[in-house]
Automatic annotation (TrEMBL):
PANTHER family: CATALASE. Its cofactor is heme. Has an organic peroxide-dependent peroxidase activity. Its EC number is 1.11.1.-. The lineage of its organism: Bacteria, Bacillati, Actinomycetota, Actinomycetes, Kitasatosporales. It comes from Streptomyces hokutonensis. This is Catalase-related peroxidase. One of its GO terms (molecular function) is peroxidase activity. The keyword Iron applies. Residues 10-310 form the Catalase core domain. Belongs to the catalase family.
Amino acid sequence: MSSTPADLPTAQQVVDSMERMHGLYPGHRRSGARGVCFKATFTPTGDAAGLTTAVHLQGPPTPVVVRFSNSEGNPRSRDTVPVARGMAARFQLPEGGDTDLVAMTVPLFVASTPGQFLELTEALRPDPATGAPDMSRVQAYVAAHPQLAEAVTQVPPIPVGYGTAAYWAIHAFVWTDAAGNKQPVRYRWEPEAGRAELSAEEAAGRPDQYLTEELHRSLGQRPVAFTLQVQLAEEDDPTHDPAVAWPEQRKEINAGRLEITAPVDDQDHWAAQRFDPTRLTAGTELSDDPVLAFRAGAYAESCRRRSRNR
Ligand code: HEM
């Protein structure tokens, strides 16, 4: 079900609500506040080239900057807890353009519309008496939207490293080929090293920022790489709902390999950037997912506030 203008909140309302949910940390992202950026190279396999004219999915390798993050708004958040991790990638295209792919370590989003997301962030607002969310409000959200139960109860892994988790871009996007034919797709980064996670007990023994330390260490020892797996929709697969997966047996192609090479030289410059899932390039388009379209304004609002040190 798509949002109607009547239930579409403003970006300001949602970002205000995220500040109430996560706390306010001036100068930082309202989600994904603690992060670290790396240089990478993406080498396409060519398997996507017949389905999209997107320049980075054709032949030559493309330089990429990747920002790994924790989903909270607290820039001092700990790595040792099961929160979603983010992987935001900026492909630096030939001739000066760029395109972003923003993904996280769960396959489903917790809301089908921006209005539902606002409801959930309000429900997750810490109770002043306890400092923690009142879980009965979250249960009421699920009771009001039972189709979201699976998405809301997903437990993200505590990965061994940033390079041992899968990251889903969740929404459907639409590829266009040279003849104008359209193919809805969904993206997932699959770690070449395989998925590996820590138990809560194992994680408790790690330093608060072990993920960044682990990635620096790994880079000196072995390649840290991902393949870009792309699921191809069939007729009638819904493209508007980020809380609903497509059937697992849908055809998947490997569109290319991303190898992380080194930390970026200028972390401050990259921390200030806005990665935006709607920053696309020719050959790729937004689907009819209202959450995807809404994110552009919310990210711009968060970026406006943090760039003024609010
Ligand atoms: C209504 C839906 C959503 C809203 C309102 C929202 C809001 C936000 C905001 C305000 C930020 C901070 C942006 C900035 O200051 O640059 C952010 C960051 C982020 N979000 Fe979302 N988000 C939504 C859905 C999603 C989904 C579906 C995903 C995963 C596919 C996702 C992954 C991320 C990641 C990885 C970051 C950190 C990006 C970075 O490193 O710059 N978000 N989100």
